[in-house]
Amino acid sequence: MLTSTAAFSGLGVDDLAAAREFYGGKLGLTIDESPAGLTLELPGGGTLFVYESPAFTPAGYTALNFEVDDITAAAAELKAAGIELERYEGLPHDENGIVRGKEANQGPDIGWFRDPSGNIISILQS
């Protein structure tokens, strides 16, 4: 049915310049630019196409996940870059803003943050 040479995901934003600075400058991802938007080269070989959308609404769910080897170190690096982890009511966050699911056998250790457009992104350690 779908025979293609590649597949990729897309993510809308309300400010492409701010997205370029955030994803390239703060997160350190390699970015290929085109008139249509930004292609982010993700760890592990995937890509994400980021485009400016005139009818933009932030993703109300986790739109992008980064699996890391050391979530405490990753949270500290984000904080040093001026990125704060979200704290959601009803979840047991530690002092770094991380939900420690592994300790309770309830999933990975995870923390969430937002891009400049409000899309939700996570760091997680399985």
TrEMBL record:
InterPro entries: Glyas_Bleomycin-R_OHBP_Dase, Glyas_Fos-R_dOase_dom, VOC_core. Residues 5-126 form the VOC domain. It holds the Pfam family Glyoxalase. This is VOC family protein.
